[in-house]
Automatic annotation (TrEMBL):
Source organism of the structure: Entomobacter blattae
Family membership noted in the UniProt record: Belongs to the DEAD box helicase family.
Protein name: DEAD-box ATP-dependent RNA helicase RhpA
UniProt xrefs under SMART domains: DEXDc, HELICc
Domain (DEAD-box RNA helicase Q) ranges: 23-51
Length: 529
């Protein structure tokens, strides 16, 4: 497929008459069943991306949409897909549209929106995500569905097992492409696209356009219409955002104290790593907090039950990663804690935006370390304001890197080890004292009372170094050359007389048993064979 360059202009604009009034969903050429569902949901006017994307999708255009979560992006592609598919019926194992999402939570959210918007249509869908029964998913596909909503991994698993066919796909939606890039799903996405018909309509949505996303769009989109929606980086007036400067070791204690001091109805704490999620949950449970983890390593059933308990209030504190938190829509969240600053500045707005919804008062606290200064500046640049830092003097004594009890314990342990009491001699000390070498004897005498400076290995000298080697002074002069006088000059005063030590050393050498003949041992060894 030869791609034409994408158009940077906006989607076909409304008429001049519509420009002078507020655009409604009736102006977007949607059918009566969809308009009825929209009215019952409570939507009054379409968002900017819906105004631009829906007419273009109904015209069959490929779309490259740059929009953040929370801009009405899901409805901008779900509504026109329902409109397009309502004219025909599904066939067994041959879905007609495919929506790819990076996480199970996002896929679930899209499926919920599909049910809401299509309540008065006869269109069906299948949700293909990990953690659910593959047998049940195959049975649903065999009945015939109009829309597949899937994560890349589970879709490929079912396809390779012969559970579905993709040759009837008329429309492909790639949602949150930037997240798929972060999670390493782009190769799977490319593999899936190569399985689809080339005559399909492709809609790609991403919060940012990285080079890899741009390459993907240029490769698989035909003359796409590029729609860019400026992200709303403003913080709600009902939300109070603060920051606290901490060290990495202080984070758990700060979160604990804030949870104790704040009047929390329900709270979400964001961590960048799943490992930190589990560690923080264990720490809070140990301190009698109702906390639960939510990240990608948990089973789907556990994640679903956790979200339901959080919505109903059975769980007050949710500790989660960014990816797992996508799709959480709870209006009763009063506090948001950033255990780590997000990797992307836009995520900061989405994180803290989960508190203070529906006119309620909300609070957001971010823990900032010295390594977070660059991320902090990027966030402040995005939201256009400085984040106020607060000093919590009353909790500083409990936020020392090392608790006083541990410091006192460490101090007493150190003093015990450096006491003047002699340490037990190792088992090899007897062998050292019996050494015929006077230097070795003197070294043993000066070691172990704690008053002298420890030289070399001290008491931890390896045993192989304690064996008495044959001194060079015992060898004939013609073998050591001129090294003997130099060696003699380095001897201590009590060893200046070489003759007083030469005889014992020569006697020691003479006691060494003669070595067996190599030739004889060789014959004996091989004669047994």
């Amino acid at each position: 497929m030869v791609n034409k360059p994408s158009e940077k202009k906006l989607a076909p604009s409304p008429s001049e008459k519509q420009k002078n009034k507020t655009i409604s969903f009736n102006d977007l050429e949607l059918s009566a069943p969809l308009l009825q569902a929209i009215e019952e949901i409570g939507y009054k006017t379409p968002t900017e991306i819906q105004v631009q994307a829906i007419p273009a999708i109904l015209m069959g255009r490929d779309i490259l949409g740059v929009a953040q979560t929370g801009t009405g992006k899901t409805a901008s592609f779900t509504l026109p897909l329902l409109e397009i598919l309502s004219g025909s019926r599904a066939r067994a194992r041959m879905p007609r549209s495919l929506i790819l999402a990076p996480t199970r939570e996002l896929a679930l959210q899209v499926a919920e929106n599909f049910q809401q918007y299509g309540r008065y249509t006869k269109l069906t869908h299948a949700l293909l995500i990990g953690g659910e029964s593959m047998t049940d998913q195959k049975e649903t596909l065999n009945k015939g569905v109009d829309v597949l909503i899937a994560t890349p991994g589970r879709l490929l698993d079912l396809f390779e097992r012969g559970g579905l066919l993709l040759n009837q796909i008329r429309a492909l939606v790639i949602d949150e492409a930037d997240r798929m890039l972060d999670m390493g799903f782009i190769p799977d996405v490319e593999k899936i696209i190569n399985l689809l018909p080339t005559t399909r309509q492709t809609l790609l949505f991403s919060a940012t356009i990285a080079d890899e996303i741009k390459t993907l769009a240029d490769k698989f989109l035909f003359s796409p219409l590029e729609i860019t929606i400026a992200s709303s980086a403003s913080v709600a007036s009902t939300l109070t955002a603060k920051a606290i400067h901490v060290t990495p070791r202080q984070k758990n204690d700060v979160i604990k104290i804030l949870l104790e001091q704040e009047n929390i109805q329900s709270a979400i704490t964001f961590c960048n790593r799943k490992r930190d999620v589990d560690i923080l949950v264990r720490f809070l449970r140990k301190n009698n907090f109702s906390a639960q983890a939510l990240h990608g390593d948990l089973t789907q059933s556990l994640r679903t039950s956790t979200l339901e308990k959080f919505r109903t209030g059975d769980i007050k504190i949710l500790i989660c990663s960014d990816i797992a938190a996508r799709g959480i829509d709870v209006d009763t969240v009063s506090h948001v804690f950033n255990y780590d600053l997000p990797r992307h500045p836009e995520d900061y707005v989405h994180r803290i935006g989960r508190a203070g919804r529906a006119g309620r008062t909300g609070y957001a606290y971010s823990l900032v370390t010295d390594l977070d200064q660059k991320s902090l500046l990027a966030i402040e640049k995005l939201i256009g304001t400085k984040i106020e830092f607060i000093d919590i003097e009353e909790i500083k004594p409990s936020l020392q890197d090392t608790p006083p009890q541990q410091r006192e314990k460490a101090r007493s342990h150190s003093s015990h080890r450096t006491s003047s009491s002699p340490r037990r001699e190792p088992a090899h000390s007897a062998r050292i004292s019996s050494s015929p070498d006077p230097l070795a004897n003197e070294e043993v005498q000066n070691r172990g009372d704690g008053s002298e400076t420890i030289r070399g290995f001290g008491n931890m000298i390896p045993s192989f170094m304690l064996r008495s080697p044959i001194s060079l002074r015992a060898l004939p002069n013609n073998e050591i050359g001129e090294a003997l006088p130099d060696e003699q000059e380095k001897l201590p005063a009590h060893e200046e007389s070489e003759e007083s030590h030469q005889e014992p050393l020569l006697e020691e050498v003479s006691e060494i048993p003669p070595r067996r003949s190599t030739k004889r041992s060789y014959r004996r060894r091989y004669s047994r064979r």
